[in-house]
Amino acid sequence: ITVGANASGINFSGLQMLPTMGPGQVEVWISGSTYRAEDKTNGQIFSSGTDATTVIQAGWDRVATASLGGDVLVKRGIYQMVGPLVMSGTCVATIRGEGRERSQLRSVSGQECIRLAVGADTLNIRDLYLTHNNANQSGGLLVFQGAQLIVYVDDVDFYDFGQNVGNAIQLQATSGVISRVWFKDSFIEGFNTAIRAEVGNTYYINSVEFNDIYANSARNFFTLKSDISGAFHKDTFEGCTFQWTSGAAQVFDYETENSGRVFYGKHIDCMAWDLTSGVQYMMIGSGQDIEMHGCIPTWKISGAGVLANPRDYRIYDKYTSNNGQFLGSG
User: What's the pTM value of the predicted model, to 2 decimals?
Assistant: First the structure.
């Protein structure tokens, strides 16, 4: 979509980020044990100290909640987060790092790294590395609290140092709907669940797209918890990959904690590696609606968890509900 001569930065079909349109330009960096935030428009260091959360928050507030719009660049380094960066505001604002494994926000006490406040929208998050190394981690590292519209998350990676607890991404539509959110090109290592969605009564999550998300050694790729009048609809997983780990439950679980509706969902060209006996690509309740196109669930054929007996494969096509069966052992 091109709107005007200078709008080439907006390309929804290619999932490009929203352009930085406001005047605010902030850089955050580490010098020894001190974190500093500088306003690049005038050279003023307006926040400094040994608390990374406070300094990054000051940078974000300067471009977002002041309605300036703009860009916060988190320079290379490890930022020890004693609390979450709370992203609020409704202007076009971006927080970004310098690339994978360079700008690391590390949760040190089991809390989120980034939390999108209720009502925050029209935001970008990109090129960051969110981590934790806490056996007590229970929530997500990147948490949406609801009432979010138009958010882009691009090239953000997640790592939990082998703890296999908590969630990398958590969508909480319990205080408002979440709609038109795009996730693209993320690598997720570990965690109990790579992506968790929670929907409260009368709310919904819709038009959320996950593109090229690779979850390695997570116990679940996606889980949904929804109240009876909640809905998860028009949401798409495309080009996503899941690799099995010990203790894996299900890859996509739309059933266990879900009392609401799932409809008009799509899985396109997704793959799950090394599924063991009892682990399914998808669990979904009756009356729910998800399309699958070109998806490849694969079972282990050697090593721990290998299938001991042949299993049935059902083959579906666009013309018939059941086109046949194939018996195989791996």
Answer: 0.85
